[in-house]
Automatic annotation (TrEMBL):
Domain Regulator of ribonuclease activity B span(s) in chain numbering: 6-103
Pfam hit, one: RraB
InterPro entries in UniProt: RraB-like_sf, RraB_dom
Recorded superkingdom: Bacteria
Protein name: Regulator of ribonuclease activity B domain-containing protein
Gene3D superfamilies: RraB-like
C-alpha cells in the first residue's frame, strides 16, 4: 500500500507495516493544542457546537493544557487530514491548533 510522503503518511505506513487492519474503522484520537485554560474551555464549546466531543486536561509533565477526542473512522489519509484541517479551522480563532493524532495498536 502506498502513502503520501508527509508526516501523516509516514504514520499510516508504520501502522500498515505493524499489521493494523485498514479495512475496519478504528478509534482515532485527535489532539488540539491549547494556549490556556480559558481558551481551552471555549475550544471545547466550539468543537461541541461542530459535533465533536472533546475533553481537556492539564499535563503536569509539560505544564500545558490539551484537548483531545476520538472519532471512529477508517485509517485513510485524506479523511484524517480533512478532520485535522476542520479542527484547526475551529480552534485557530481561539489560539489553538490541531496537534496530531494517534490510534491504539494491539
Amino acid at each position: 500500500m502506498k502513502f503520501p510522503k508527509d508526516e501523516d503518511g509516514k504514520i499510516l505506513s508504520m501502522l500498515y507495516r505493524e499489521g493494523l487492519n485498514f479495512k475496519k474503522p478504528h478509534n482515532i484520537d485527535f489532539y488540539v493544542a491549547v494556549p490556556d485554560e480559558k481558551n481551552g474551555e471555549a475550544m471545547i464549546k466550539a468543537l461541541a457546537d461542530n459535533g465533536y466531543k472533546f475533553m481537556m486536561e492539564y499535563d503536569d509533565d509539560v505544564e500545558e493544557w490539551t484537548c483531545f477526542g476520538s472519532i471512529k473512522m477508517h485509517l485513510k489519509h485524506n479523511e484524517i487530514t480533512a478532520v485535522q484541517k476542520k479542527l484547526d479551522a475551529i480552534v485557530k480563532p481561539l489560539g489553538g491548533y490541531a496537534d496530531g493524532w494517534g490510534v491504539m495498536t494491539e
